Amino acid sequence: MSGNGTDMSSNGTDFTIGYLSSAVAILLFGSNFVPLKKYDTGDGMFLQWVLCAAIWLVALVVNLILRCPKFWPLAMLGGFIWATGNVAVVPIIKTIGLGLGILIWGSFNTLTGWASSRFGWFGMDVKEVANPMLNYFGAGLSVVSAITFLFIKSEIETNACSMDHTPLMTEPVINTTEDLCTASSWVDKLSTKYHRTVGCSLAVISGILYGSTFVPIIYIKDHSRRNESIYAGASQYDLDYVFAYSSGIFLTSTVYFVAYCISMKNRPKLYPEAVLPDPVRSLVFQASCQGCCGPSPPAAFS
């Protein structure tokens, strides 16, 4: 009898910690992109690389504090997935706005994470729930909200380089505008009639990628219980995978940035004034990850 009481108390504690960790992660992930609104970020390629470099440095410190747990290369795949979704953040913010962008990619993030764990996609163990009916009802509400968000119109300040804009100015001012347009990113030059289509599409893709980013880590943990698996005996502590995960983020962002520099003929658009906020964002991101990687993540996300 006392054993059952102890188990119930332990489960209640796990659920409390799980929900508190989720609340912290939601708050920090949601505010992580606010600094981007205050500075010119161009196409975002340089900023995403600075952010990912700072994320890796913070993860290195965490790894040293944890005394360098075993490095599992598969966890880097999660970093690749996250960095790929992160590349689209600046274009999303510039086309449909920060608020609507987070609503859309957050909805698809939730649905992807729920479906992959509930149905055991990508080789993960199926997560059973106490009340499947309520579980599916909640997922259905998320689907409805995701579809609703796609039809919300956002008012974004149009750039002078928009193809729909025909300036009625004197010649000297027109020349100045053309010079500014030459230095603008492809997002700034995008016609306003395509803003919504491009922004919503990128937000959906980013949301699906974000929802899949922890799949490799969960896969390793699930297979660590199987003696025949190469991951047998792997740690069940989520923070042990943060360094490998962040290494995947930094490596992927570096590859994307190098490819970007090559495509720009070694003349990338750099924005020094926006560099300082990125280390701050990296601290917020890592704190968010600690929230996701709390003592009992399944309690938070099942």
Structure description:
- With 302 residues, this protein is mainly α.
- It has one domain (2-295).
- Helix content is 67%, strand content 0%.
- The chain has 13 helices and no strands.
- Helix 2 crosses helix 12.
- The relative contact order is 0.23.
- Residues 162-182 and 295-302 have low confidence and may be disordered.
Q: Which band does the percent of strand residues land in?
A: under 5%
Q: What structural category arises from helix and sheet content? A: mainly alpha
Task: Please bin the fraction of helical residues.
Answer: 55-70%
Oligomer: single chain
Strand/helix succession: HHHHHHHHHHHHH
Distance between the termini: 27 Å
Describe the sheet with the most strands. none
Individual helix count: 13
- Gyration radius, rounded: 22 Å
Strand tally is 0
**What's the number of structural domains?**
1
Average pLDDT: 78
Unreliable stretches, pLDDT < 50, 5 or more residues? 162-182, 295-302
The general outline is globular
